[in-house]
Design goal:
Largest sheet: 8 strands, parallel, barrel
Structural class: alpha/beta
Strand content: 5-15%
Helix content: 25-40%
CATH class of the largest domain: Alpha Beta
Number of helices: 12
GO molecular function, one term: hydrolase activity, hydrolyzing O-glycosyl compounds
Protein name: GH26 domain-containing protein
Organism: Streptomyces dioscori
Family: Belongs to the glycosyl hydrolase 26 family.
CATH architecture of the largest domain: Alpha-Beta Barrel
Number of domains: 2
Shape: globular
Keywords: Glycosidase, Hydrolase, Signal
CATH superfamily of the largest domain: Glycosidases
Radius of gyration: 22 Å
């Protein structure tokens, strides 16, 4: 079978800070008064890097609550495995967990999931302030899980050649990058989320990421071992490391990348509805597919997970949604998180109404089997009902007349809280 190349649009690459800062300064000097108009993007932007010197965010982010030690987690109910969704990379993703829970009739979403940016090492170490809201959410309840995807190499989505990847993997295997992961481990312990689930080097059997395994599987496995050893050496840590390939063979059989039971705690799988025309039964039975994943994990005495799953190449596929939810109920992974944006999702994406209805009906009131869905409830883009007081969590101010939005890049808009809108009718003030 030919390697399966996936080209999902996700987590766009880093935009040069110097160029963005120049645009920001030029727009500010030329326009005078500006207006920030918040917008909800259809595709989540990449987590923002540190702002360059001289660019000051006009609205300071609220300080995160002081860390408190989470109480010991009670034993998990195997009949009710933890689930959640990837909803956004930053604080909005945390806020939307409660919104999605309401849409699901108060279902208990026990998993929060985000990604560290892979553009440069300083961000892989944990962008200052980026993890605070997630850590606070985790500490609020004892049985919650915080799942963090961690790149193994910088420039992770920049199309680095196999030859260069091979050299980077060998440098990692020699210990050259250990200190970056120690810093990340120390940051997570300081935030009092030492039990974070680390999805390290995800989808390593594909060709999308610089941290892929194919160019040198032996060096990749040695490098994985070094990262895990470095992070486990930090006092106070209780991390669990999740080995998560793509479903199927992809560029290399994922079993050839498995580093060994000593440094793997969970065996995950990212499973999207693809390629075009594939049935769910084929996704189960294909080489290195869903059944092979379950069997491999059982043979190694490891729990399974599904950090990423959802729709893709076959559109609004209600059958895939129903069968995948049944698969999760049958095999009871430690956790699963739906990727909830278009084309994969069901709540923040209006393109999949039939699959959305299935997802909601199956998980509605999951903590109490008696409620049934009667009112679909507001989706993220719906206005509040007239009889209800508006409770916006992501307010979108009206754009004033004679005002033109200026594109400053995802991370600048993140710190601004929206797009910058500039008025060009200053000449009318003299009339």
């Amino acid at each position: 079978m030919a390697p399966l190349q996936r080209t999902r649009t996700r987590r766009p690459a880093y935009v040069a800070a110097v160029l963005t800062a120049g645009l920001f300064a030029s727009a500010a000097l030329a326009s005078g008064t500006g207006h920030a108009a918040a917008v909800r993007a259809g595709e989540p932007p990449a987590p923002p890097p540190t702002a360059p010197t001289g660019v000051v965010a006009p609205v300071a982010a609220p300080a995160a609550p002081a860390p408190t030690t989470p109480p010991p987690a009670p034993p998990k109910d195997p009949a009710n495995p933890a689930f959640g969704a990837y909803l956004d990379y930053g604080p909005r993703g945390v806020a939307r967990i409660a919104e999605l829970s309401r849409w699901l009739g108060g279902a208990d979403l026990r998993v929060a999931h985000t990604y560290l940016p892979g553009d440069r090492w300083s961000n892989i170490e944990g962008l200052p302030g980026f993890l605070d809201a997630w850590a606070h959410w985790r500490r609020e309840e004892a049985d919650r899980l915080f799942v963090l995807n961690v790149p193994m190499l910088e420039r992770n989505e920049e199309g680095v050649s196999d030859r260069e990847v091979r050299g980077l993997l060998r440098r990692g295997a020699a210990g050259e990058f250990d200190h970056h992961f120690r810093k990340l481990a120390e940051r997570l312990v300081e935030l009092e989320v030492p039990d974070t689930v680390i999805v390290l080097g995800w989808e390593m059997n594909g060709i999308t990421y610089t941290h892929r395994c194919g160019p040198d599987p032996e060096a990749w496995k040695t490098y994985w071992d070094r990262i895990v050893t470095a992070m486990r050496a930090v006092p106070g840590q209780k991390f669990r490391f999740d080995f998560t390939p793509n479903r199927g063979r992809d560029a290399i059989p994922w079993t050839q990348c498995y580093p060994g039971d000593e440094t793997v705690d969970i065996i995950g799988m990212d499973s999207y509805d693809q390629p075009r025309g594939q049935s769910f039964d084929e996704a189960v039975s294909e080489p290195y597919g869903l059944q092979a994943h379950v069997d491999f994990a059982k043979a190694h005495g490891k729990p399974i997970s599904y950090p990423e799953w959802g729709l893709f190449r076959n559109g609004d596929n209600a059958t895939y949604m129903k069968r995948m939810l049944a698969w999760l109920d049958e095999h009871k992974p430690l956790y699963n998180t739906l990727t909830d944006y278009c084309p994969h999702g069901v709540w923040q994406c209006d393109d999949n109404p039939e699959a959305s209805e299935i997802y909601r009906s199956v998980l509605f009131g999951r903590t109490d089997p008696t409620p049934k869905p009667t009112d679909p409830g507001p989706r993220p883009t719906d206005p509040p009902k007239p009889t209800e007081p508006p409770k916006p969590t992501d307010p979108t101010p009206e754009k004033p007349s004679n005002c033109s939005p200026v594109a400053l890049g995802d991370w600048v808009e993140y710190w601004l809280g929206g797009k910058l809108c500039l008025r060009f009718d200053w000449w009318s003030r003299n009339r």
